[in-house]
Amino acid sequence: MLKTVWLAATLGAALALAPGLSPLQAQEAEIDDGAAATPEVDSDAMFALKRMGEYLRSLGAFEITADTWRDEVAETGENIEFASHMDIKARLPDRLRLDVSSDRSRRQFFYDGKTVVIYAPTVGAYASFEGAPTIRETLEIAADKYDLELPFADLFTWGTPDDDSDLITDAFSVGLARIGGEDC
Q1: How far is CA 131 from CA 62, 92, 95, 108, 128, in A?
Q2: What is the DSSP letter of 106?
Q3: Which of 8, 34, 49, 66 has the fewest CB atoms inside 10 Å of its own CB, making it the most exposed?
Q4: How does pLDDT run across 7-29, given as a tens digit for each residue?
């Protein structure tokens, strides 16, 4: 569930970055009463994802500001929505800064091409670990070795041979949206 929410937020924010992407036509969904919908992978949605990744790979550096929402199911079964604000600054292939703030916490992630430092300024605590030569490889270490998946990590794999797009089982275009005053 959380990965789906992050993917949707990532795709929406990243599409706002990609100039020249033509708006995707909204797909009309056919609803069959009583029959469960079979997930499909829309080729237009996958093409947009591929182009966005290629565009990000072409940049020497980029910045993203995102407001995201994440749903969690409480023990009572009720959905609880958590909002956060993120500022991402990346210089490819080996520099990254991520500032994440929410009602519950504030975290800063720094990667200088060698070391990752995670800082919690509210409590004055930090942790660090040895990174790899690239952002993408360092994010893999964070996920595999420390079970730490950073928001928007997919931005650094889309458009590369190592992306996980072949694992996507359900993708569709929701149509044109206005994000930050830009049509996406």
Answers
A1: 20, 14, 11, 16, 9
A2: E
A3: 34
A4: 444 444 444 444 444 344 334 44
